[in-house]
Amino acid sequence: MPIYLDISHPNRMVVAVIQGTVTVDDIVGAAQQFVATGAWPYRKIIDVSTGVSNVDAKALEALATLARSSAKDVPRGPTAFVVNPERSDIVEQFAKMTEGDRPVKTFKSIHAARKWLDDNTKR
User: Fold this and answer.
1) pLDDT, tens digit, for every residue of 7-39?
2) What's the distance, Cα to Cα, between the start and end of the chain in Å?
3) Which is the most buried residue in 19, 25, 90, 112, by most CB within 10 A?
4) Total-model pTM
């Protein structure tokens, strides 16, 4: 799977790095790991800056719906996406689609993403 997850329970933090080509099934698999490990409420950095995907708008909506139903009784933690600004459209679209679900923002660097999470998260 081209999504590598580092889930730190003591820090209540997930770092996901997408490398290569990611499919909808890969994204669903990562979401299932969030559920199985109890990581939905954790802060998340999702680095998509080097990955690519063929996910379209219809699949994005299905992923947003899946995330909402998977975390129905659990608050979702803030999510910081690290993007390549030259190809961030799909991630920006997903962030906008889900911004009412939890704090979400896109960044050009992992350092800025981590700072935002640290500055805006109660632990």
Assistant:
1) 999 999 999 999 999 988 898 888 888 888 999
2) 30
3) 90
4) 0.88
33-52 pLDDT tens trace? 888 899 989 999 999 999 88
Q: Which is more confidently placed, 5 or 69? A: 5
- Is residue 3 a contact partner of residue 29, using CB atoms and an 8 Å limit? yes
pLDDT at position 1, please? 60
Strand partners, 104: 79
Count of CB atoms within 10 A of residue 33's CB? 16
